[in-house]
Design goal:
By secondary structure, the chain is mainly α. The chain has 13 helices and no strands. Helix 4 runs parallel beside helix 11 and helix 6 packs parallel to helix 7. It binds protoporphyrin IX containing FE (HEM). Pathway: Amino-acid degradation; L-tryptophan degradation via kynurenine pathway; L-kynurenine from L-tryptophan: step 1/2. It catalyses: L-tryptophan + O2 = N-formyl-L-kynurenine. InterPro entries: Trp/Indoleamine_2_3_dOase-like, Trp_2_3_dOase.
Amino acid sequence: MSHDAETPHLDFAGTTPYEDYVQADVLTHLQHPLSDDPGEMVFLVTTQVMELWFTVIVHEWETAARALASDDIPTAVAALKRSVRELEALNASWKPLGQLTPAQFNSYRSALGEGSGFQSAMYRRMEFLLAEKSASMLVPHRGAPRVHAELEKALHEPSLYDETLRLLARRGHAVPESVTERDVSQRYEPSPEVEAVWAEIYSGDESDELARLGEALTDVGELVWRWRNDHLVATRRAMGSKAGTGGSAGVAWLEKRAVKNVFPELWTARSHV
Ligand code: HEM
């Protein structure tokens, strides 16, 4: 049979090529609310959507880190710029949950038990790439071998920021060996020498590729900070100062996490330009 040029194909021997690629049938049957509350579905799906964005962003930052390790700044900046658009989309997905009232959240909160975003392994992969390493974040995942193995590998790999600073050192900037040779499984601690390096880069030609790399990382840092603050405000609206389902003090604990600067010297160096 010849096909009418203007209508899509309808006949497929098996599942559609769309299904084979997207696995929409799998994806749209992964929603299992724990309560009868009609408002729980959007809480669950928003969380799943955010996990998918975390996954893409981890992919971009791993691409960027690998490119930096081989001195390919254009590929790294392209991946970082894609991640900036993705972070904007991630942050926009707070919209459906941003105005939850305590009564609405209470309708399904107890059904969540001890479940908490604190237990998101993909979020930890993001943090590890930002050099916010912590071996204790592996502990919750001891019962999930694949997740645990992926996190453990990520813990011991140089972060996006480590690869950036190593590249700056290779380009002749005075990044100390204590930074380039540091134990990358530990949380990155800011260094005055690195701050001076960024101040020098920012005092020079703004179209220089290192300055542009610094700005792409700053965009990333800003949007991660915005995600944390949007999460904090949504939490404050939904539960005030109650304790979290994950066992933390809730908002007070999140406030401490949200004040931290991602890529610290990229922010502090600005005072010296
Ligand atoms: C309005 C709904 C939400 C509330 C009230 C809320 C509340 C909380 C609280 C209280 C914590 C602290 C840990 C604990 O004791 O549980 C936390 C952590 C966390 N939540 Fe949420 N959350 C909400 C939505 C989400 C969504 C949609 C995500 C997306 C995945 C998410 C991801 C996280 C992550 C990654 C952490 C760990 C943060 C860190 O370690 O710094 N949360 N959340």
